[in-house]
Amino acid sequence: MIFDFTIMYDIKKLKQLREETGISFSLCKKALEESKNNIEAAKKLLNKWGIAKAQDKSTRNTGAGIIFSYVHHNKKVASLIQLACETDFVSGNKEFQALGQELAMQVASVMAETNEELLDQEYIRDASKKVSDLIKEAVLKFGENIKVVKFVRWSV
Questions:
Q1: Could you report the per-residue pLDDT of 87-144, keeping only the tens digit for each?
Q2: At the top level of CATH, which class does the domain 64-155 belong to?
Q3: Suppose 133 and one of 2, 118, 124, 129 were both cysteines; which one would form an S-S bond, judging by CB atoms 3.0 to 4.6 Å apart?
């Protein structure tokens, strides 16, 4: 019996894709295999899969979560946002908490009246993404439904 141990993906590219996206090694590996080791094509596949996964998980109950706050350095703008997920395990994750802080800063930076307006905004740190894209990426990373429950912005 002859075994073929040919690796269908480049290990360095796998590590790079994992570091850049934060998505699991198994999904990164699958994306690299399907894109023939093309990093940009793999990212597009991961994004496409993330959208589908977010839609699949969107009906699941979000019984856990955290409230995040942001106060601008000039002390004239502040925000609170409630971000929900399915489990306390994810709500305690540092990456989930970083997402909540980013969203709190987004709320303070750009006016929005409704959740839909907030989700449709360009992300302040990367205009090529919308706020909804950040949440879809987090859903793909954590495997749980994540929702903005409510938010408020104050300014002097």
A1: 889 889 999 999 999 999 999 999 999 999 999 999 999 998 899 989 988 888 888 8
A2: alpha beta
A3: 129
Give the torsion sign (CA, 40, 125, 66, 116): negative
What is the per-residue pLDDT for 2? Answer: 55
* Three-state secondary structure call for residue 121: coil
Identify the CA nearest to 133 among candidates 151, 118, 113, 154: 118
10 contacts: CB under 8 Å, gap ≥ 6: 32, 37
Taking the domains of the chain in order of start, what are their residue ranges? 11-57, 64-155
pTM of the model as a whole: 0.67
Q: What is the DSSP string of 48-104?
A: HHHHHHHHHHTTS---EEEEEEEE-TTSSEEEEEEEEES-HHHHT-HHHHHHHHHHH
How do beta strands 147-155 and 64-71 pair? unpaired
**Fold agreement (11-57, 64-155):** no
Please tell me which residue, 27 or 78, carries the higher pLDDT value.
Answer: 78
